[in-house]
Amino acid sequence: MTARPKLPNPIDSVVLASLDTPDGWLEYPLGNDVIEGNPDTRMKLLRTVGVKTPHKSVAFFTSRPAKFHWRFENDEAFVLIEGRIAITMDTGERFEMVAGDAVSIPAGHTGVCEVFEFSRKFTVVTSGIAD
Q: Which segments constitute the (S)-ureidoglycine aminohydrolase cupin domain (predicted)?
């Protein structure tokens, strides 16, 4: 997987972002993880570190129809805002999602994501020990 971009948001900052404005979107290349299609994935980061966690990514994420591998290196939870996707986990479990659905996946899993139509999600990725 290609290295993901990081932005230096101060740890105690309040960040406001809109899903519907063109500013702040970054390319999120998936490299050799793409199985088929051209996902043209993009993200808009709101936070890259947490007050109590060494890693916290809070972001909007978009993808066009495609199929690609995904590694859940940290705990990840997201709400699908628009679109339709499926995630087939390394355990064989398959989760089909439509707008309004949410999922929480613990670190250490891998899966294959299938994006059936343009999709947008709001995601929070965390790792570390809270006080």
A: 57-121
Q: What are phi and psi of 32, to 5 degrees?
A: -75, -5
User: Cα separation of 97 and 38, whole Å?
Assistant: 20
Tally of domains in the chain: 1
CATH number, domain of 112, equals 2.60.120.10
Residues sharing a CB contact under 8 Å with residue 21, sequence separation 6 or more, in sequence order: none
| pTM assigned to the model | 0.81
Nearest to 79 by CA among 17, 125, 121: 121
Mean pLDDT by 10 residues, the chain (131 residues): 48 74 88 96 79 71 96 92 97 96 94 97 79 48
Interatomic CA distance for residues 41 and 26, integer angstroms: 9
